[in-house]
Structures are given as structure tokens and as C-alpha cells.
């Protein structure tokens, strides 16, 4: 059979099966309202790009602790607050005080915006989290254009913050503004929490969320974050989990001062030899963690989950190539993704006190500190992991009969986050993605740690979803960060379609 014809027959069959099965009803055609909203967004896309340009022009860098940058951040938050007020939202710019820096300097923390639009008890309330601060950027770092002048080249909008996270915040606002401009009722009640310190560790955010739990957040049903990326260039994703992290420091000390290997070499338990043995006992050459019990709490893989990995679009060769890696530990897409997302990993980061310069210095370091961390997955628990790591290192160390002193501490313990993807908002987002992009999303997790999702889940105890808009090559935090015009505009439509789907689910 002609392959094209074959495909047609297959898709026709699939379509009939869908109709027959009834389990997956095909998404309904866009309603008249949705069509008008989409049309509005298309017609006004240059205005939406223009606002993004104005926002990118503000150097809202929260990383460099410089007073004039803090002023820019405050100005950025004021711009956003104004924009939300123009939409008719009630806006509270919450002053959260000052940031104390290690050098004694204090700097103001930009206000956190809490805004709301609509409080109809018959509608679900969706709260959008975003941030308007950015990573530092200078043209000399290798930008082809001025990082703070949004510049369009071949449909790509280059500028610091374009994708992380000003573009997605504006896409949500654009979606709301389309309903407002068409004088249509918003399908859901909308809330915003927008901060300006995300890139600096979300200083003051958790405390504010706790404080507002029974007030601002009491009516919130769902939380949406759009601060990560798709895992490829053209296919949208929906993200339901992130790994946690527990960071360890293991110190081996003989004395504070270093030794000469000519004078002491041969008669000492050398701290570095102890440390290398300790670090060498953590993980084997296939990436398997050797700490007893560490895999006990890892959630078992279900058949349903296995299928989700199979459906994901990832060009492994391209990924390997662009990462300049000859060979990964695993050969299949499924294994690679599972080991990034749903299994723990242990990485050794460095040794403090080691001789790390060029040349041949014959030193015996007197005191060294090894650093490693474990990315955690459901249902691992930081306090259990801490105990297991300490026990393991003590056991290995005791076998060496060393007279040195070993101290182990966990300096960071962040729990993993995972959402229930059967939740209404995941269902609504999937339908909205189908409507706008004509495809099922890649169901992704993130191998890194994004504490904010878990914080919202723990404190507010409501469903959290990550709905990214940017493509995999957007270069967040990097030189030549961009968002594609297509992603930005279709992303605005996606949020609008999502509001309508949420409202429909409420009625069912
Ligand atoms: C982690 O384990 C400890 C000790 O077993 C327990 O007290 C704690 O509640 C657990 N934490 C979580 C988040 O499950
Ligand atoms: C440590 O000491 C024990 C008992 O003194 C001895 O049996 C063992 O071989 C020693 N181990 C090492 C690595 O030196
Ligand atoms: Zn971000």
C-alpha cells in the first residue's frame, strides 16, 4: 500500500476507535468565544510583543546585589502592578522588607505582587505564579544583540528574561486581557503571585505564602507555574514533577595546616586518601548509588508510567550531540529520561582544600572537604537519606582505621515534588494543548530542583501544575536568551483555552 494512504487509513481507524471507545472523546471544535479570543490574540500580537519589549528593557537583575539594580527591580514590579490594575485586577504590592547580605550590606527586597480578578464562588480560582527578575546579562558575555533590547530575528525574540520568565507572565496577562477587551466574562477567577527575587533564591516568598495561606490563598483551587521549558522545539509539554536535592559535605581532618610530603609522607593517615576512598564508595561506574537502602523508598515504576516515557518526543542523538558527550550511561530514550526524572542520582562536585592549581606542589593537605549531592525522587525523604548517607560514610571510614576526624553534614535538604496528573487542571491543560497545538503534550518532569512547586503544594495543599511555553533551545540563564514569537503568541492562546477548559470541567 502507498505509505501515505496507509497513514491515512491508520489515522482514520484511530479516529473511529476513539469515537467508538468513548474513553478519549476527540476535543470539541473551538467554541465561538474561543475563536474570537484566538483572533483577538493574533490581531494584537505586535502589541503583545511591544509590551514584552518594554518589560525586557528593565534590567531587573536580582542576582548582583547592587542598589541601582534593586531600583530597577522595584520599577519592574511597579510596571507589572500597573498593568494588572489596567486589566481591572485588585493589586497588593506587598513589602517584604530587606535582604541581609553576607558582607553586612542590606538591600530592599522588591515587593511581591498579589493580585486578583474575579471572585465568583461558582468558578474555580486559578493562581498563576511567575517572576520578573532575571539573571545578569552583558553584551560582552557573547550576546549578539543588546540583552535589554528585545530584538526579533527570524521569529525569535532575543532578550534577557524573554523566556525566563517575563514572556510567560505576559502570556497569562495577554490571555486575560483578550477576555477583558472582548468584554467577555472571565471563565475562571484569576489570582497572581509575582515575585522579583526568584533568581536569588526566592527570598521572602515562602514566608509570605505561609502568612497568606488563610487569606489570599484560601480561595485558590489550582496553582500554575510556567517557568520551565519544553523538552524539544515544537511539541508542548506538561510538567508534573521535579527532583529534590540533598547536599552533603564530608570533612576529613588531620590538622588545620598542610604538610610537606617529604617530611611527613609515609607516616600519616592522609586526609585526602581517606576522602577519595569515601567519595569513591558512593556510586559505581554504572551510576548506581552504593549507599545501602537508598533505593528502598523510590516509587516503583508502573506500566502506565512506562507508557508515558515511550510517548515522549526526544531526539536522543541530537541531545547527545549538542551536549558534546560521546556516550551516556543508557542507550534508550526511556532509560535516559527515567534516570533524569524518576530515579535518584549522586554527583560528586568538588573538594575544598585540595591542591588544584597547575604545577607540582608536594603538599599533603591537612584538612579537606568533599562535596556531593543526591537528586531525590518520590518517595524519598531527606531525613531518611541523611541518616543513610551518614551511616554509610561512617562504616567506610571505620574500615580504614584512620586516626583522622571525619564530619558529615547535610547542608541542604529539598524534597522532590510530584503532582497528580489525573487532576482537573492537568486534564484541562491537555485539552487546551490539543486545541491550540493539535497534539498531546509530552508529559515531563524536571531532573533539577525547583523548590517553589513543593512549597506551594506543602503550604497551600492544592494542585500545582507546570505549564511551560518556551522551546528547549530558549537558552534561559544563558547568552542570547529568546522566546519564539510563535511560542509567545500561541502560549497566550493556550492560557486562554485553558481558562475555558477549566470552566467546562467545573460544569461537568
Ligand atoms: C521523613 O521521615 C521522617 C523520619 O522517618 C518522618 O518523621 C517525616 O515525617 C518524613 N517526612 C516526609 C516529608 O515524609
Ligand atoms: C584495621 O584494624 C583491624 C584490627 O586492628 C585489622 O584487622 C584491619 O586489617 C585493619 N584494616 C586496615 C584497612 O588497615
Ligand atoms: Zn525562571
Automatic annotation (TrEMBL):
<feature type="signal peptide">
    <location>
        <begin position="1"/>
        <end position="24"/>
    </location>
</feature>
<keyword id="KW-0464">Manganese</keyword>
<feature type="binding site">
    <location>
        <position position="227"/>
    </location>
    <ligand>
        <name>Mn(2+) 2</name>
    </ligand>
</feature>
<keyword id="KW-0597">Phosphoprotein</keyword>
<dbReference type="GO" id="GO:0004180">
    <property type="term" value="F:carboxypeptidase activity"/>
</dbReference>
<feature type="binding site">
    <location>
        <position position="164"/>
    </location>
    <ligand>
        <name>Mn(2+) 2</name>
    </ligand>
</feature>
<feature type="binding site">
    <location>
        <position position="199"/>
    </location>
    <ligand>
        <name>Mn(2+) 1</name>
    </ligand>
</feature>
<dbReference type="InterPro" id="IPR017153">
    <property type="entry name" value="CNDP/DUG1"/>
</dbReference>
<dbReference type="GO" id="GO:0005829">
    <property type="term" value="C:cytosol"/>
</dbReference>
<feature type="active site">
    <location>
        <position position="133"/>
    </location>
</feature>
<feature type="active site" description="Proton acceptor">
    <location>
        <position position="198"/>
    </location>
</feature>
<protein>
    <submittedName>
        <fullName>Carnosine dipeptidase 1</fullName>
    </submittedName>
</protein>
<keyword id="KW-0645">Protease</keyword>
<keyword id="KW-0482">Metalloprotease</keyword>
<feature type="binding site">
    <location>
        <position position="477"/>
    </location>
    <ligand>
        <name>Mn(2+) 1</name>
    </ligand>
</feature>
<dbReference type="GO" id="GO:0006508">
    <property type="term" value="P:proteolysis"/>
</dbReference>
<dbReference type="InterPro" id="IPR051458">
    <property type="entry name" value="Cyt/Met_Dipeptidase"/>
</dbReference>
<keyword id="KW-0378">Hydrolase</keyword>
<dbReference type="GO" id="GO:0070573">
    <property type="term" value="F:metallodipeptidase activity"/>
</dbReference>
<keyword id="KW-0479">Metal-binding</keyword>
<comment type="subunit">
    <text>Homodimer.</text>
</comment>
<dbReference type="GO" id="GO:0046872">
    <property type="term" value="F:metal ion binding"/>
</dbReference>
<dbReference type="Pfam" id="PF01546">
    <property type="entry name" value="Peptidase_M20"/>
</dbReference>
<keyword id="KW-0121">Carboxypeptidase</keyword>
<dbReference type="InterPro" id="IPR001261">
    <property type="entry name" value="ArgE/DapE_CS"/>
</dbReference>
<dbReference type="GO" id="GO:0051246">
    <property type="term" value="P:regulation of protein metabolic process"/>
</dbReference>
<feature type="binding site">
    <location>
        <position position="164"/>
    </location>
    <ligand>
        <name>Mn(2+) 1</name>
    </ligand>
</feature>
<keyword id="KW-0732">Signal</keyword>
<feature type="site" description="Important for catalytic activity">
    <location>
        <position position="260"/>
    </location>
</feature>
<dbReference type="InterPro" id="IPR002933">
    <property type="entry name" value="Peptidase_M20"/>
</dbReference>
<feature type="binding site">
    <location>
        <position position="131"/>
    </location>
    <ligand>
        <name>Mn(2+) 2</name>
    </ligand>
</feature>
<feature type="domain" description="Peptidase M20 dimerisation">
    <location>
        <begin position="240"/>
        <end position="398"/>
    </location>
</feature>
<dbReference type="Pfam" id="PF07687">
    <property type="entry name" value="M20_dimer"/>
</dbReference>
<dbReference type="InterPro" id="IPR011650">
    <property type="entry name" value="Peptidase_M20_dimer"/>
</dbReference>
<comment type="similarity">
    <text>Belongs to the peptidase M20A family.</text>
</comment>
